[in-house]
Amino acid sequence: MAARQETVARVESIDVDAYKYGFSTDIESEKAPKGLNEDIVRFISAKKNEPQWLTDWRLEAYRRWLTMPEPRWARVHYPRIDFQDLYYYSAPKSTPGPKSLDEVDPELLRTYEKLGIPLREQEILAGVETRRVAVDAVFDSVSVATTFKAELAKAGVIFCPISEAVHTHPELVQKYLGSVVPVTDNFYATLNSAVFSDGSFVYVPKGVRCPMELSTYFRINEQNTGQFERTLIIADEGSYVSYLEGCTAPKRDENQLHAAVVELIALDDAEIKYSTVQNWYPGDSEGRGGIYNFVTKRGDCRGRNSHISWTQVETGSAITWKYPSCILRGDGSQGEFYSIAVSNGYQQVDSGTKMLHLGKNTKSRIISKGISAGRSQNTYRGQVSAHRKADGARNFTQCDSLLIGPNCGAHTVPYIESKNPSAQFEHEATTSKISEDQLFYAMQRGLSAEEATALIVNGFVRDVLQQLPMEFAVEAQKLISISLEGSVG
Amino acid sequence: MLEIKDLHVSVGEREIIKGLTLSVKAGEVAAIMGPNGTGKSTLSYVIAGREGYEATSGDVRLNGENILDLDPAERAAKGVFLAFQYPVEIPGVATMTFLKAALNAQRRARGEPELQTPEFMKRVKEAAASLGIAPDMLRRPLNAGFSGGEKKRMEILQMALLQPRLAILDETDSGLDIDALRVVADGVNALRSPERAFVVITHYQRLLEYIRPDSVHVMAQGRIMRSGGPELALELEERGYQDYIAQEAA
Asked: What distance in Å separates the CA atoms of residue B178 and residue A290, rounded to the nearest whole number?
């Protein structure tokens, strides 16, 4: 309870006047030289003392990447990225492997403090038995602090940096890494496979309901450093886990590239809920700067009656290219995608999902809410397909767009393919504007133009907000209001 | 309370209100009657401050203060309330949430403390009960899927909750059956007080049988053509508006 209140209080204290996370932390970094070649890939692998198989895996990805063209099909425009002008590795300098929070650089902890992350969960330290949130803090590339590991270990849940899992649970990593997003998958995922720095690893054993929500806060800090997170979550038979990902980034003039890969695997009767609140720097009022976010997120419902649910609130980044997807392989498996994508200023969003029905009696549900303001462009791109053998596949898609002001755009690009006559796919789409009638009505009752807009927008996204865990829902609602500031009047 | 002097209002290029003068005292219920398309709704919008309804000359004063430069929310905080002819749907926003946000926004603007949830709930539930509004309607999104009668009752509920100084009712009787009309009228009558003024805009005399006006004003061609007591409404009921339309032709 107290942890939740703390989160709520922190969120409420967020200043609504400007993007507040535009500070950077003064910590020395250890960098690889600029650019990318096989030596850099080997350097990254060596830095982490990786086994030979992983070094080879990275190198294979790198060689493949060299042959791949950068994708151009999304409705986003940006100057060509010079991949030789980026750093591919940076780690905060600290004593190797801090054993507890006390050993973590206090400067780093203060950064989290500013961001309002309740990393030091006083009540946990005091041994209070309440609902808990474990935070695996990712600072730039290396996980420097992991809390509650012991608590989780009691339940048999493994939650640690993936760089650590490579050493402690090599059989699991080797079995599942790249099994959902193969190294050959796409330009950015392949790049990530070659140079991924760190990320989270979760394994929930058979029949275990993970006792707390797992949470990772990402933060991009190093100037000109590409971020290549790699997350791997495995829910073994009959298990359940809820994972929260939240992001903020300091203000920078240069565009920052982010190409993460997230792989989820749900075995028989297992369920994974993955929630994201993304608030990376979207660029200034002229559209300069901002994060380029090219992410590959995919879940594999590998077992029978397995269930994967993606919920995302996207408010940040200059460019978002992101399609959290579900492969519905197991018979009777279910996939869900709930999304709120807010764009303002000069932001460009091309986001959506894929629901690939392979197994029999598989079900999927897509609820997407796009909100465009300013001069932004917001595209929903989604694919729903039924394989020849996917008898009884069902999908319901609802895709709503809300426009605020005359200079923004909303686009909907659904792809629907069915090779099985018993599949039932439904697609509903609406595009609306916040009407002058609604604004005038709410203002006549005493609400300011901004309050009225926030209220109307919150009504528009309510279905999706309800899918988020409570702490996240409060944060998300606040972020949406902040993101839309200055979009009216 | 409300003083309008020689008001001219244009919407786009077109002048809709052409030199309207009207005075309504505190405690008074003034009825404005007139044929369709004479600017009655425009008058309600310009008093409430809707964008696009521009007063090109003249004056609208509330308790002596010129309110034409204030935005709609500022006017609301000063006590202007408009019961809409067509209440607007706000999907996904629970009626209760909307009412609380509105009431507390007004209270903040007036420098009053915000109402806490228990006190607020008490007030809403009382007001809802007196208007025959089922509690579960307060949890539904505002006006979304409400029937015409439910929407109008919800307008009166909002009025009861916000306790305005000046309430304008724009064709509140339209689309109401006789039972709903009675409930709405009772709601309005319960709010009549020496500190509050009402402007009741209507096309028909019917509403005025339930809400007895102190004064009746005939509006046509963007002006008040004639003012009188309640008996004027009866005369209009009998003769229609032809005299005033005829004047226009002449």
From this structure: 60
Largest Cα span, chain A: 68
Q: Which residue of A has its CA nearest to B80?
A: A444
Q: How many residues does chain A have?
A: 489
Average pLDDT score over residue span A436-462: 91
Q: Say whether A290 sits in a helix, a strand or coil.
A: coil
Select from 1.25.40.10, 3.60.20.10, 2.40.30.170, 3.40.50.300 the CATH code of B2-249. Answer: 3.40.50.300
Contact criterion met (CB < 8 Å) for A446 and B162: yes
Determine which of A402, A440, A488 to mutate to test the interface with B (most B C-beta atoms within 10 Å).
A440
Please name the member of B73, B81, B90 whose beta carbon is closest to the beta carbon of A459. B90
Give percent of chain A with pLDDT exceeding 90: 45
Q: Would residue A446 be called left, alpha or beta, if left means φ above 0 and alpha means ψ between -120 and 50 degrees?
A: left
Interchain pair B90, A458: CB under 8 A: no
Please state, in angstroms and rounded to a whole number, the distance separating the CA atoms of residues A161 and A142.
Answer: 8
Report the pLDDT averaged over residues B219-233: 91
For residue A415 the two structure tokens come to 């792809």
B3: distance to nearest CA of chain A, Å?
20
pLDDT at A3 (0 to 100)? 43
Strands A240-248, A200-204: pairing kind: unpaired
The pTM of the full predicted model, rounded to 2 decimals, is 0.77
Q: Is B99 left (phi over 0), alpha (psi -120 to 50) or beta?
A: alpha
Would you tell me which residues 409-448 of chain A have a C-beta closer than 8 angstroms to some C-beta of chain B?
435-438, 440-448
Distance (Å) from the C-alpha of residue A77 to the closest C-alpha of chain B? 34
Tens-digit pLDDT profile for residues A357-370 = 999 999 999 999 99
Cα–Cα distance between A56 and A54 in angstroms, integer? Answer: 5
ipTM score: 0.95
